[in-house]
Model the fold of this input.
Amino acid sequence: MARKSKRNNPYPPQNNQSMYVGIFLLIVLLGTFVVLQFTSQPGEKNLSYTQFLAQVTNGNVALVRIEGQVIQGEFKNRVENATRFVTILPLMDEELLPLLKQAGVEIIGEKVKDQSGWSLTWMIVGGLLFVGFLLFVMRGAQAGDSSRAFTFSKSRARLHRENTNKIRFSDVAGCEEAKQDLQEVVEFLKRPEKFNAIGARIPKGVLLVGSPGTGKTLLAKAVAGEARVPFFSVSGSEFVEMFVGVGAARVRDLFSEARKHAPCIVFIDELDAVGRSRGAGLGGSHDEREQTLNQILVEMDGFDSSEGLIILAATNRPDILDPALLRPGRFDRQVVVDKPDVKAREAILKIHTRKVPLAEDVDLSIIARGTPGFTGADLENLVNEAALNAARNNRKKVTMEDLEFAKDKVSLGPERRSLVLSEEDKWMTAYHEAGHAILGHILPLNDPVHKVTIIPRGQALGITYHLPEVEKRSIVKEEAIQNIIMAMGGRAAEELKFGKDYISSGASSDIDHVTRFVRTMVCEWGMSDILGPVRYGETEGPVFLGKDLVTRKNFSEKIHELIDEEVQKIITHCYEEALKLLKKHEKKLDLLAKTLIEKEVLTGEDLKELLGEAPKKQFPRLELIKKELENPSQA
Ligand code: ADP
Ligand code: MG
Ligand code: ZN
Done:
């Protein structure tokens, strides 16, 4: 499934490197030999303790020297040409001394030699060697002479050769604008002369900006694949090492290597790992990171884009990048890689199901509509989960059911069928979800309910899904209000059926969601009559210490109180509205809850059967306006 390109063609082996490995091995061998020389002398035979006892009983032992657990001694007659032997006393053997005495062996007790003296010497020698090694490595790193420092200062970049990179723009669905922007880079890499001839300045660096999993890495590879040039990829975090100077040396190495392969692409993933604003951020010394960053800047200034070298970088935090990186002549071109919209999601699903046999009932557009907010990586994962599920159930083809299952799993975590709900919990959940579902169904501006379930999944005990018919970029106030009423339907149903004192904590995420939503309505969308179309609170830009965006309060205490009041008023109003509606449709609520207990999962079709067709979405004035505009005379 995963079409991540493999690490084909790593660095070609370096001659210098193997020479050093050879020397290193030689030293180890010599060392071992010397140590062996010290411990066993020629003519000395290693005996097991049992063999030793046998020699004693046979009367072939003249003398023993006992030093702690070690017993050395001399044979009376040679054994296999050895005159002496050594053996180890496994445990204390109390019968040994009497036995030796009886056999008339001369016994010499030795003071246990100060072993620690020896090991201390070795420790000092080892320590010196290690320090020497470190100095050696660091010197190499600082001097940038990569061959001297083994591979420490080697950039860890992976080189993908042009002929093995099979990724093309057609493998990337959606993000049309990004592809268009990058097409220019491809053109340049293919025919640099053309651009150079008319003196067009080609960007040196292009920064891909987008959330994780939106396909930034994939796009970068596709650029290389389209242009048929080599592709060096390295992750920003690989530059950051313990030793000061190593990162910078790696950057140098990367660029010098890349220049040899020009025209080519250098791709720095997770640029923010090295590219954070200097002098900001947590932790002790940033010397290493800053040096690395400086080196990147130096290298970028140091080459001419007519050399055919283009640096692509990716980040999901452009806001924390050091401004120096974004200056002209560096990453002055930004390409935004958006999360896919409904069409792009369908296209991505198509790409990733190319090699998956699909059953006839599969409609990828439905899955695409049900997965707003999913990234390309999520969708790839979804298809994979669906295929796994089909295989688990011994199906030859992936069905719609598999895809739905996978969608839930990816978005909410695995089902927890094994979680045993008490009878009360079950009914509570059934009514709660039925409350959402009914209001979702009967309120015309809500998206149609797609599925209701009381099978626990992730943190949720039950879920009501709805499916937007078209991807929306904006919503109107009445729609927002109906959404809130539906969201309050769960809690309202609990209160209606079980009483005020028996409402449950199961509504917490609804409440959380609604509170945020209404706050946005009031403070950002200007949908409150009292507070008017004013933006309250300001989102601050680049952030200190890499924290998330913070909202600065730019209003008075009095306004603050008004906002809180307004938010509370809207939510309470919607809650009461939900209660009223559910009371009116109590019969349907009971029916739905009962059916949920029986079946656990209900689809949109089931709902239609139980509750009747949902009312059509309406936009009352729009039709009037259109009519008026068409025949102005009648107005
Ligand atoms: P990023 O680098 O933005 O975090 P990746 O490029 O590593 O994301 O995307 C991870 C995987 O998700 C890709 O290997 C690809 O299979 C899939 N993917 C993401 N976006 C797309 C897309 N637009 N079209 C097709 N596949 C995509
Ligand atoms: Mg990536
Ligand atoms: Zn709920």
